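Feature request, filed as a ticket because there's no other form

It would be nice if the structure record came with a short human-readable summary line next to the tokens. Right now we just get the raw output. Example of a typical job, pasted below so the devs can see what we mean:
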Amino acid sequence: MSIAETPIAALLRGQRTTGDGVHLVARHYKKGVRLDTHMHREAQLVYAARGTMQVTTPKGRWLVPPDRAVWVPARLEHAIDVLADIDMRTLYFDVAWLRREQRSASLEAEFVVRVSRLLHETILALFDGRNNSERTGLLVRLAMLELHQAEDSATFIPLPHEPRCRRAADIVLADPTASHEIETLAREVGTSARTLSRLFSSETQLSFKSWCQRARIAAAIERLSMEPNVPVKQLASELGYASIPAFSHAFRQVTGKTPTEYWELK
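Raw output as currently delivered:
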């Protein structure tokens, strides 16, 4: 695992720094790219203006489609997988800047944010090439204000740490579209269904059924990210749902929207 310099990316050609402890980095990554586990000395707000990525931390796996961004605290291990070609826009924040702004205490843990129209336009404005320091400073502070209003965990899959529970979770994540029975999984990982159910509840704060549903809906969002024209009926069938209404109900339970409503935001 590596620790990026302060920040290496900001020193590269075409990148900018505000001169006040905030660095702006624009990158394009192709589908299939993996940024292996690493950490930065700075905190960062990572946004894909186009495309979808997956961010994995010790806490769990965060699916980040275009209407969401992820906050990563300084020195937090994380890896990024590019699921569909992305135009990444990242704001790096020096820890000293966060302290001066009195924001460090409230941003100590990672989370995904639902990107409002205002936050979307604010981030894009920071990268429009207008190098006015006063304007940039105001936009950065506006982004931080919006960040605090937007926390959302609908696309988060918590990862258990207990070895048996983690093995069971990995089996499900390897094929989230399959019908996984807890009794079968329990036998595979060497425990009882009752113990495994209890472990999922205590380790992820979700029941086994709810955790599997979240993993399945994340797989649906990933598929929609890469194939936005896939028919909902086909997707529902491939994910193991008996009907479109059943799939839409499960999708709404996790994301707050039907698949059609969700994708209209992209």
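Something like this underneath would help us a lot:
The chain has two domains: 2-152, 158-263.
The chain is about 40% helix and 25% strand.
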